[in-house]
Amino acid sequence: MRNIGKWVLLAGLLLASPVFGEDSDKQNDKGGKTDASAALTQQLEQVNKSLKSLTSRFETLERNLDSDLKDLRAKGTTTDLNLAKAQADLLTVKKEIAALRDELNKKTATTQMSGYSGLTTSTGRVRLVNTYFYPQTIVVNGTAYEVLPYQERYTLPLPAGSFTYEVLSVEPRRERLLAANETFTVHVHPR
């Protein structure tokens, strides 16, 4: 910004240079000054006014630029701080999600037991019959089967031996024996 002021000053000096070709010894009739001297003084005054005006405008421009630069730096710092806080919050949320997943995995971890004993290869099936007016849910050995009204459904093959079944909201859990190659029927009907 200060370099611009130097260029303006140099331009003013060049504009104020004397006019060649006129005699500087000529006297003016009114004030005793020469015409060239009066013209030169008038030009210098105009250059000084223009220079003062330009200097004032450049100072105002410089103050405005400094103010804008400070504002931008302040906003940049605020933006950087907001970004850093958002990143920290995101990291905290990720850690909390990971902790919740670990906790959920611990709570839902179950021990699974195979229904296959390895000694017997004989199986049977359970036939589920619903003659009730509404769909019924029947649980056989922990597996729920939805049976629509007036429909029947078969379970997956079950190992021969004891099994349990329950008609939800109608009949409590019962234990029965299933022989090899046998089909046991559970009948749900209105009473």
Description:
The protein has 191 residues and is of the alpha+beta class. It folds into two domains: 2-106; 123-188, Immunoglobulin-like (Sandwich). It is 46% helix and 24% strand. It contains two helices and eight strands, in the order ααββββββββ. It has helices spanning 2-15, 35-108; strands spanning 123-130, 136-140, 143-147, 151-154, 158-159, 161-167, 171-178, 183-188. Strands 1, 4, 5 and 8 form a four-stranded mixed sheet that branches. It has a four-stranded antiparallel sheet with strand order 3-2-6-7, with no helix packed on it. Helix 1 (2-15) runs antiparallel to helix 2 (35-108). The longest helix is centred in the middle third of the chain and has 74 residues, at 35-108. The radius of gyration is 51 Å and the shape is rod-shaped. It starts with a helix and ends with a strand.
Overview features:
191 residues, 24% strand, 2 domains, Immunoglobulin-like, single chain, four-stranded mixed β-sheet, 2 helices, rod-shaped, alpha+beta, four-stranded antiparallel β-sheet
SSE series: HHEEEEEEEE
Query: Which of globular, elongated, flat, extended, rod-shaped describes the shape?
Result: rod-shaped
- Number of helical stretches of at least 4 residues: 2
The largest pleated sheet is described as: 4 strands, mixed
DSSP strand count: 8
Structural class: alpha+beta
**Number of discrete domains:** 2
